Amino acid sequence: MATSEGTWGYRDRFGDAFARTYFRRFGPGVVSSVGVGTYLGDPTDERDRAYRTSIAEALSSGVNLVDTAINYRCQRSERVVGEALDRADIDREAVVVATKGGFLPFEGAPPADPGAFLRSEYVDTGLVAPDDLAAGSHAMTPAFLEAMLERSLSNLGLDSVDCYYVHNPETQLRARSREAVYDQLQAGFERLERRRVAGDIGGYGVATWDAFRVPRDHDAYLSLPEVLARAEAAAESVGADNHGLLAVQLPFNVTMADAVTVDAHRHPTDDRDVSALEYAQAVDLDIVASATLAQGSLAASLPPAIDAELSGDTPAQRAINFARSAPGVTVALAGTGSPAHVPENVASGTFEPLGARAFDAVFE
Fold it and tell me: What is the pTM of this model?
């Protein structure tokens, strides 16, 4: 598990090489505001080797957050994260490791008949019932989340993870009511609260694509205040003093800025609607920005008016710094599947992000 002593020690080792606000508070300690993403790439041995090298280099260069998920690259991403942690000259206590559960994962490679594989592996074994599924491949019952957490720990070769996300819960809205999805989340949070008390996770979160950055009338909408209320109820039900909801992950970049521009969440104290990022700030939830480079499309160019306001030697660095500049964003994830991109991504943290006023001016 990442610790205060371990992460602050990491910051002391690398902090002088980066801009003043590069390391930010997260959980019990601090974390780099550039994180390693592991979503993209084919499930091949060649890609595994590239990821293994890239992640180890990033960890040894000043990045101490790695984000993955059990379904990424058919479980291969989790496995190479564990291997890279072994390879890097960094203590486990210095690194924040986050993974996710929700989608039914393949094993090593896409099967010839995906539906038949999922039925035999998950439904026929009793791990999930047909009624638990949404879109044929997503579940978030307590038993399923717990089984996936166990498998993730095995894949990673770790005794614990620092943040365990419920992955894209809005997928369940395709199969059931919004209230039923909130009930599912609360039940899942209760199970994760128990695993937090046991020391298997440092905390938990919700990783989304649409849920928190769309208007209330959108089919994929979920309310951040309601999700927080369900976490509080889950903690109370297991006798915990405080809830373990640490973080929200959502897409945020120059061309997908809805987390700042869409006011769909009721502020906890002043009775107004605010954006996902403003709400998270108000209730002390960390925001982890995904799709920072829009899956690579922003690595070549940014909209000129915004590009001119940002610091960085390359478009990719300026795109990462746009996400790091948003008030409320703790970490901006950058895909790290190629060793050639690691120095560039890491070096984005040597530039100061925009101040709050300058960032707000971009949207005026």
Answer: 0.96
